[in-house]
Specification:
Elements: H1 2-5, H2 9-27, E1 48-57, E2 65-75
Antiparallel strand pairs: 1-2
């Protein structure tokens, strides 16, 4: 049993380190309070954000295309969620 588990010890160690970093990130307190309504309000905003012909796959499933020729334009002052 030990001979079977030993080669995987490296992966257990890497997983424990990754879990520690994820836990640290989850427990962190952001510098900016997103619920606070104070701050600088930009009166005049120009420009836009554009994505043109984006292709995307997850590294774990490169054969499954999530976005193919995806384009999106978000005008200044607007929000968008996918």
């Amino acid at each position: 049993a030990l001979a079977i588990a030993l080669p995987n010890l490296k992966y257990f160690s890497e997983a424990a380190i990754a879990a520690f970093h994820i836990s640290k990130m989850i427990d962190s307190v952001p510098e900016i309070d997103h619920t606070e309504e104070t701050g600088i309000v930009l009166e005049k905003v120009s420009g836009e954000v554009q994505f043109k012909n984006v292709q995307f796959t997850y590294p774990s499933r490169p054969e499954t295309m999530i976005f193919r020729d995806f384009s999106l334009s978000v005008p200044a002052g607007h929000s968008m969620a996918l």
